[in-house]
Specification:
323 residues; mainly alpha; Rossmann fold; Tyrosyl-Transfer RNA Synthetase; 2 domains; two-stranded parallel ribbon; 13 helices; globular; binds tryptophanyl-5'AMP
């Protein structure tokens, strides 16, 4: 059976970009594959956190993942720091990752420019991400477009490990959705919607009220030529609305463009589609209590360890560590 693995950081609120670019696919893929989904709390530590913030973020993220429809029985849902092997393999992967490769990562360049403190962990972050994926003999990784470069690096370092130590690791592929792989900020449609950009009016959060969502779409930045056309390069704002609506209704953005003549109606319909998608998610998470979530995560960590431990042992054997 195909093994699927993906992760999400528990920093900040989960937003529409996460949902459309990744989580919708996570839910779909759990029915066809052996799916393992991870709340990557160690990754979130690469940017400064207040003590305690990460624990709350982790439980909040788990609540959202369960509410969007991740099935904790049929799939595996767990917290990265609960499975120690992630960090052990992280170190090994760092030894087969080139310094130059890490320096070319656009996420590192962006984040190191935006933050006052650039930690060494922000630089080596992609090696930990590679370890997350490789630890589970992963075939397919569902992610948004911004993770493409990290996934390519994962493939390169897995292949390098295999050529150095013999065929040990499964080389994974990414799965990026055709529509909505890059949801843009509603106020700055040249930038992707992001937890780390301080743009509250441009970011639709999964816990926004219907009124907040409607307002954010109403004020979404478009352009002045009043033509509804899907053309991300020259019409990023309008194209963003079309791809969001496309992802909500499972329709090609180009096809949707044909049925609109006015930006106003497109904004109203996109807001409505998002509100209707988010409503049942919010209802479900209100019904989830922390004890239930914690029990699911503990069970998930046990299932994850059972997969990760033999793979880690295979890596130790391949490297030839004295045991
Ligand atoms: P993170 O936490 O930033 O985002 C989680 C998922 O959401 C997708 N995403 C988007 N998709 C479309 N439009 C957007 N504006 C948008 N913003 C975020 C991301 O592509 C991602 O799929 N490095 C990863 C976490 C990670 C991981 C892994 C992922 C750690 N280990 C192993 C996969 C496999 C990250 O920071 O995602």
């Amino acid at each position: 059976m195909t093994r699927v693995f993906s992760g999400i950081q528990p920093s900040g609120t989960i937003h529409l970009g996460n949902y459309v670019g990744a989580l919708m696919n996570w839910v779909k893929m759990q029915d066809e594959a052996d799916a393992i989904y991870c709340i990557v709390d160690l990754h979130a530590l690469t940017l400064p956190q207040e003590p305690g913030e990460i624990a709350q973020g982790t439980i909040d993220a788990a609540r959202v993942l369960l509410a969007v429809g991740i099935d904790p029985e049929g799939s595996t849902l767990f917290v990265q720091s609960h499975v120690r092997e992630h960090n052990e393999l992280n170190w090994i992967m760092q030894t087969v990752t080139a310094y130059g490769e890490l320096g070319r990562m656009t996420q590192f360049k962006d984040k190191s420019e935006r933050n006052v403190f650039t930690s060494a962990s922000l630089f080596t972050y992609p090696a930990l991400q590679a370890a997350d994926i490789l630890l589970y003999d992963t075939d397919v990784v569902p992610v948004g477009d911004d993770q493409r470069q990290h996934l390519e690096l994962t493939r390169d370092v897995a292949a390098r490990f295999n050529s150095r130590y013999g065929d040990t690791l499964v080389v994974p592929e990414h799965r990026i959705p055709p529509s909505g792989a890059r949801v843009m900020d509603l106020q700055n449609p040249e930038n992707k919607m992001s937890k780390s950009l301080d743009s509250p009016a441009g970011t639709v959060n999964i816990d926004d009220t219907p009124a907040q969502i409607a307002k954010k779409f109403k004020r979404a930045v478009t352009d002045n030529d009043n033509e509804v056309r899907y053309d991300p390069a020259s019409k990023p704002g309008v194209s963003n609305l079309l791809s969001i609506l496309g992802a909500m209704t499972d329709t090609e953005p180009e096809t949707l463009a044909e049925s609109y003549t006015q930006y106003g109606q497109l904004k109203v319909d996109t807001a409505e589609a998002v509100i209707e998608k988010i409503r049942p998610i919010q209802e479900r998470w209100e019904a989830l209590d922390e004890a239930t979530i914690k029990a699911h995560l503990e069970n998930g960590a046990n299932k994850a360890r059972a997969v990760a431990q033999p793979v880690m042992q295979r890596v130790r054997d391949a490297v030839g560590l004295y045991q």
